[in-house]
Amino acid sequence: MTKKGQMEMQETILVIFIVSVIFALLIFVYYTYVIKDIENSGNELSEQEALVQLASITKYPELRCEISNCVDMLKAISFKIISDRNKDYYLRTFGQKKIIIEQVYPEVKTDEECTPINFNQFDYPNNCKFWVLYEEVPPKYTAKQVTSIPISLFFPERDEYRLGRLNIEVYR
Fold it and tell me: Which one of 58, 73, 76, 164 has the fewest CB atoms closer than 10 angstroms to its CB?
């Protein structure tokens, strides 16, 4: 009788062990699926946040035109200096992102960044292609997502409108 009891006890322990392993594997698979789903939701929310910020940037008084819905490029040049001086405020507003305005039409032959030095030259705005408005890149990131919308660029010194693209790079 004792050998039969020992065999049944070993079988019971083996069945409990196998059920426990299967249960642990199911929990692992479930949590892996849930974590991936949460990451996807985070990516979607991050993209939606970038789109909302893109739409609202043209409404900032530091950048907007007085007459129509456009970006005043004279203000855009000074915005980089203002954002560097008030880093805490703009870090809370924009977070760790890079905001760039790129001139699309008429096409510019150079790939230079527009700076106050370029602004003071005779051939401005044909001597540079993009303006970095805000840049706060984290030291380490795993992914970068770029979202963009078309905008109207107004150059008040020439009383001229051009077509541009507003890009936001979001880092994760």
Answer: 58
